[in-house]
Amino acid sequence: MKLRSTETFWPLKSTMRYSYPSIDQDLNTEILIIGGGITGALIAYKLINEGKKVVLVDRRDICNGSTAASTALLQYEIDVPLHELIKLRGLECALDSYKNGKQAIFDLRTIIDTIKSDCHFEFKKSIYYCSFKKDIPFLKHEFKTRKQHGFDVSWLEGSDLKKMGLNAMAAIESNTAAVMDPYCLAHDLLHYCEQKGMQIFDRTNITSIHKQKTKLIAHTENRHLITADHIIHCSGYESTETLTEKVVDLKSTYVIASEALPEVPNSFKNAIFWDTGSPYFYFRITEDKRIIMGGGDEEFKDPKRRDKLLPKKEQMLLRQFQKKFPDINFKIDYSWAGTFGETQDGLPYFGKPNPDKNEHYVLGFGGNGITFSVLGMNSILDSINNKKNKDLEYYRFGR
User: Fold this and answer.
1) Cα-Cα-Cα-Cα dihedral of 198, 339, 270, 103, to 10°?
2) 177 in Cβ contact with 126 (< 8 Å)
3) Measured CA distances, 302 to 206, 250, 297 (Å)
4) What is the pLDDT of residues 323-365, one digit of tens each?
5) Structural Rg of the chain based on CA atoms
6) Can you point out the beta strands (E) in the chain?
7) What is the C-alpha separation between 17 and 40, in angstroms, rounded?
8) Could you give the CA distance from residue 116 to residue 130 in angstroms, rounded to a whole number?
9) 227 to each of 48, 209, 357, how far by Cα in Å?
10) How many CB atoms lie within 10 A of CB 11?
11) Full-prediction pTM beyond 0.90?
12) 9-39: per-residue pLDDT in tens?
């Protein structure tokens, strides 16, 4: 599956920080992680710190799948609003998902500080706005629900937003959100894990897995075998190639990044922005003063169709930006398209699809992929040890 098109921003910015070999022999390990993006890196970090023997493989160069295309808006707010998620999954699951997402941002900051990653993590406020008067009741319902359940949110009128440079009707302001460079962090995490003894192989494609007594045997494209007690799939949207259950609807999404601005606009100094539309638009600033904007999703995953639309999507996104932030001169410097996916309830999938087989999945679909991956990191040991865990129940397969 081709997950993205053209050159995305993060690899060009960060260059290839570390390189790894492809596999050239049969291996035995306690745990095999498939997927060398931000999810695989976080899971590896957890397991290597627990003293596990770990091998990690990726079919591409490390971090060059969806992680390289991520715009890395870190929010506790899920693609499904809280008041709707309560109806879909019940009060306990919905509230825990939002609260744990908030904690995941702080957990991530702790990890970044521990490994001393220069990934430009920065806390921001999140502005969830509506552009049309008809959407104000929906937004007010969401605001009241969050306020009722103890979330630190404020209501902003159109006049408040105008002072921020945003042309919109109303918004919910949340105090906890963040941005970072996900490509840099994933590389730093994997380098840390390698220094702790983990083996990493890129350009190593797993073609099949079979069970042999208590072991799992992974076959590589170049005919080597990796024998493991447990296999953890951190393969994101490509997990649809190995799962029998349909868990995600794959789409195409589009992103533009501006030229570096002379200075950070006041609008973006302390905030990220996203709207109530479906699909929604979202905006953030980078540490080198570029604005990144994404959205314009299409309901298909065909790479050729997706890429053919990129020039039109660039102009559409630019027009939308100009409507929202008319005082900012956005000149497109980079653009890219990628595969994106949403689950029915906006929540991830963790654990074992087959309880009799030690194949685990950590799949953080949707706009909260990175924070979901932190939740997956915090529950992976219980999945391996067959222990009860609330998140493994909330986000189980077959739900």
Assistant:
1) -50
2) yes
3) 23, 10, 13
4) 999 999 999 999 999 999 999 999 999 999 999 999 999 999 9
5) 21
6) 4-5, 27-34, 54-57, 73-75, 122-130, 153-157, 170-179, 199-201, 206-212, 215-220, 225-233, 249-258, 271-275, 282-285, 291-298, 332-342, 349-351, 359-363
7) 17
8) 38
9) 18, 10, 14
10) 17
11) yes
12) 766 565 667 889 999 999 999 999 999 999 9
3-class state of residue 84 by DSSP: helix
Q: Distance between terminal CA atoms of the chain?
A: 26
Nearest to 125 by CA among 164, 71, 86: 164
- C-alpha–C-alpha distance, residues 36 and 107, integer Å: 20
State the sign of the Cα–Cα–Cα–Cα dihedral 63, 68, 74, 75: negative
Q: How far is 115 from 101, CA to CA, in rounded Å?
A: 21
Q: How many CB atoms lie within 10 A of CB 49?
A: 13
Cα 367 to Cα 94: distance, rounded to the nearest angstrom: 16
Number of neighbours of residue 296 by Cβ within 10 angstroms: 21
CA 212 to chain centre: 34
Q: Which two tokens stand for residue 190?
A: 């994997």
Do 257 and 12 contact (CB within 8 A), yes or no? no
The CA-based angle 108-29-190, given to 5 degrees, is 30
